[in-house]
Amino acid sequence: MIMLLINQEVDKTSQNCDFKKHHHYSRFVLGYHNKQPRKMTWTDTITKNEKETIETLKRLTIKDCTPKMLEDETLFYRFLKARDFNLKDAEEMLRNHINWRKEYQIDTIIKDYKASEVNKI
């Protein structure tokens, strides 16, 4: 009985129709008429208002951000999301983060690190 069910499932997927096309999840990734997969990104899920808020936060803090921080395109989104897109709170949180990175020299810690004598033995 179990073998019969397995064989029936195999037969369903081996029919002429495309199984992925009918699977409900693949409609979000592939679309109804497009067979080429489309890469989903975080920008697909945010609203126009949220995009504008991200750009505003970026303009307010870009002078203080290091180039390493600017490489991460989700940086401003993450801080805004953590504060429910409250611009004032997100800016304060981001500035505290930037100050912490400068205080502990996060961006240069690997370059400036020197091994102790224990590692040389």
From TrEMBL:
It comes from the Eukaryota. It holds the Pfam family CRAL_TRIO_N. GO terms for cellular component: cytoplasm. InterPro entries: CRAL-TRIO_dom_sf, CRAL/TRIO_N_dom, CRAL/TRIO_N_dom_sf, SEC14/CRAL-TRIO_domain. SUPFAM superfamilies: CRAL/TRIO N-terminal domain. Residues 72-97 form the CRAL/TRIO N-terminal domain. Coiled coil: none annotated. This is CRAL/TRIO N-terminal domain-containing protein.
